[in-house]
Amino acid sequence: MQTKMNYLIILLTTIFMVGCTNVEDVSTTEEKTDSQEVTGTDTNDNSAKEETTTTVDEEPVEEEPVAEETSTETNDDLFPGYELIEVDGGDLSGYREPNVVVDIGFGDREYWAFTNEYGQLIRVIADEIIVQDDSTEPVLSSGRYYSDEAKVPGVESDVLDEGHIIADSLGGVSNAYNITPQESTLNRHGDQAYMEDAIRKAGGVTNFEAIITYPDTETQIPSSYQYTYTLMGEEVVDTFDNVNPDEVNESLGLTDSEPSDSTSTSSDTSGDISSVDTNGNGQVTIKEAEDAGYSMPIMSDHWLYPYMRDNDNDGMVGE
Questions:
Q1: What residue ranges define each of the domains in the chain, with the CATH number in brackets?
Q2: 3-state SS string for the chain
Q3: CA–CA separation, 183 vs 244, rounded Å?
Q4: What is the pLDDT along the chain (319 residues), one digit of tens a residue?
């Protein structure tokens, strides 16, 4: 009996111990499972964050290229009220379009000529007048860029020249937007010729402006000219009428007596050029003529004239 009781106690003790062990195992297993679930959740969250970060890095925002600055200045801004057109520098037509502006500078020069509603040439401007360079430019033996000038109505007159507002020697072209019928003496020997010579000798000028006026709206023959420009730092204003200056001076009693030195205006048709042409090249320079005792200018009726170069073809050398 005692032995059975002992077996019963041992059996109960064994069952009790096995039950406790199972409970601990279950508890441990649940704790591990909970821990694993938490860890799994954190891992998923981190992965999501990493994926989000990676997505941002893989698709960076591209910088848009900086647009180049372009000029918004138009022809209307430069010349309001005028249409900018192109005309060949050697165009002989005497017709002008109304209310237009044309570049009358030879080569890269920018000389701007303006017409009014009647097609009259009324204004010419240039920031800088660049003197002709016959060593680099296609200049004819006459000293001109073109063999002839535009036939503006009026130039057919015996007393009017095809007068350049800006001479060939100063870089002007020969179309109708740079030509006006100008009194011959004024153009060749008067204020127009003096002004052009002064600009050539100065090597050019700046802030150039020519204003041309007319007696009415029908004619293309100007009544007067006004030139304003800066020469060697000084502003110069030349104003003169489109008339023969010799006749005006004579009417005013201002005509000088004939010069006593006839060598400068002599009409002799013969002479010994070898005494003047010191280098023997058949061409007489202004310096050679002056060294030989001849005063300037040499006119077209002087015997030396055929041996000298008249760059502006105005019948006068060394003016």
A1: 82-251 (3.40.570.10), 261-319 (no CATH)
A2: CHHHHHHHHHHHHHHHHHHHHHHHHHHHHHHHHHHHHHHHHHHHHHHHHHHHHHHHHHCCCCCCCCCCCCCCCCHHHHCCCCEEECCCCCCCCCCCCCCEEEECECCCCCEEEEECCCCCEEEEEEEEECCCCCCCCCCCCCCCCCCCCCCCCCCCCCCEEEEECCCHHHCECCCCCCEEEEEHHHHHHCHHHHHHHHHHHHCCEEEEEEEEECCCCCCCCCCEEEEEEEECCEEEEEEEECCCHHHHHHHCCCCCCCCCCHHHCCCCCCCCHHHCCCCCCCCCCHHHHHHCCCCCCEECCCCCHHHCCCCCCCCEECC
A3: 6
A4: 556 666 667 767 666 665 555 545 544 445 444 544 444 444 445 444 444 444 445 555 555 545 444 444 445 567 999 999 999 999 999 999 999 999 999 999 999 999 999 999 999 999 999 999 999 999 998 899 999 999 999 999 999 999 999 999 999 999 999 999 999 999 999 999 999 999 999 999 999 999 999 999 999 999 999 999 999 999 999 999 999 998 888 888 766 544 444 344 443 445 677 778 777 767 788 888 887 878 888 888 888 888 888 776 777 887 6
Report the predicted TM-score, pTM, of the whole model to 2 decimal places. 0.60
Ramachandran assignment for 211, one of left (phi > 0), alpha (psi -120 to 50 degrees), beta (any other): beta
